[in-house]
Amino acid sequence: MNEGIVLELQRELINPQIRIYDLLLKASLIAEKLELKEIKDWINLEMEGYKGKEVPEYRILKGKPEYRHYLRGYWETLNVVAKDEENYKKIMHAISTAYITNSISEVEEWLKDDDDFIH
Predict the structure, then answer these.
(1) pLDDT tens sequence across 8-63
(2) Residue 90, by phi and psi: left (phi above 0), alpha (psi -120 to 50) or beta?
(3) Minimal CA–CA distance to 20: which of 90, 79, 107, 101?
(4) What H or E segment, with its residue span, contains residue 110?
(5) What is the rounded CA–CA span in Å between residue 51 and residue 73?
(6) pTM, whole model, 2 decimals?
(7) Is the dihedral of CA 100, 21, 8, 30 positive or negative?
(8) Cα 17 from chain centroid (whole Å)
(9) How far apart are CA 117 and CA 51, in angstroms?
């Protein structure tokens, strides 16, 4: 079947067997051809990672610091002690926020691992 690259990309977007990296590569070709510089720049950051660059909101993960109590067997909230409210907020932000700067191929590798890396 002879179809355009845009239609091919649209079809591939709903196929869970196709890696996001490969979809971005194809989208990059389209953005280059259509001279969409902002889109091309964003795609490059996703493919190469955000090392030293501002991370978009969707790549900032926030969680609740918990630990598994080895005797009781259930999850408990981590209690943080700080000398004042400002330091408490800084500590809580540091231990509950993750900035995902890695390339999309690295993120895909994490997600396919079965070692409970992400809870």
Answers:
(1) 999 999 999 999 999 999 999 999 999 999 999 999 999 999 999 999 999 999 98
(2) alpha
(3) 107
(4) helix 104-112
(5) 38
(6) 0.76
(7) positive
(8) 19
(9) 21
